Amino acid sequence: MKSFGKSLAVLASAAAFCLVLAGAQAQQSTPQGSYAKTCNNVSVSGTTLNATCMTFNQQPSQTSLPFYSSCVGDIGNVNGTLACAGPNGSYALTCRNSVVQGDVLSAECQKINGQWVPSKLTGFQGFQGNISNCDGQLKNGNC
Fold first, then answer.
1. Distances 47 to 13, 32, 60, 65 between C-alpha atoms, Å
2. At 39, which CATH number?
3. Eight-state DSSP code of residue 30
4. CA–CA dist 93, 58 (Å, integer)
5. pTM higher than 0.70, yes or no?
6. Are both 94 and 76 inside the same structural domain?
7. Which of 7, 92, 121, 122 could form a disulfide with 105 if both were Cys (CB 3.0 to 4.6 A apart)?
8. Which residues pair with 121 in a beta bridge?
9. How many domains, in total, are found in the chain?
């Protein structure tokens, strides 16, 4: 019976260790982005990024960004509000699989004839206004 008690104690210790390990793995790391320069108390809860960010007037503002992982490119602080600060524009209606690596925005874009082709916009620096799909080519501004 003594051996059974020791086995039970070892099993309970192992189970407790696994629970602690699972809890540590459940904590999500915060994503990189320019927001980190002007925000603190950053945390992730499920699919939402939470932070306290400074406004233009240097006032702290509680903010959150639901579905932050769907942002392409930078996550920024826009006057105390977390926002996807990556590529925006009409291109998103006819392009897919957008990725930002360094200063290059890449996507598969649909041509007028319906064909999907790879396209790149070099020199991308975060939000730049409208980005368009001009017959399969990514361009700043309108076509």
1. 32, 15, 23, 9
2. 2.30.60.10
3. P
4. 36
5. no
6. no
7. 121
8. 105
9. 2
Long-range contacts of residues 7-16, Cβ cutoff 8 Å, at least 24 apart:
none
Lowest mean pLDDT among 27-36, 50-59, 99-108, 122-131: 122-131
Count CA atoms closer than 13 A to 61's CA, side-chain side. 18
Mean pLDDT of 30-39: 90
> Six-digit token pair at 3?
């051996």
Which residue has 């904590």 as its token pair?
A: 27
CA 94 from chain center: how many Å? 21
Please say if the pLDDT value at position 117 is more than 90: yes
Q: Is the dihedral of CA 58, 33, 44, 26 positive or negative?
A: negative
**Residue type present at position 53:** C
Q: What angle do CA 9, 12, 15 make, to 5 degrees?
A: 150
Angle at alpha carbon of residue 26, lines to 74 and 14, rounded to 5°: 155
Q: Which amino acid is at 29?
A: S
Residue 111 domain boundaries: 90-140
What distance, in Å, lies between the first and last C-alpha atoms of the chain?
82
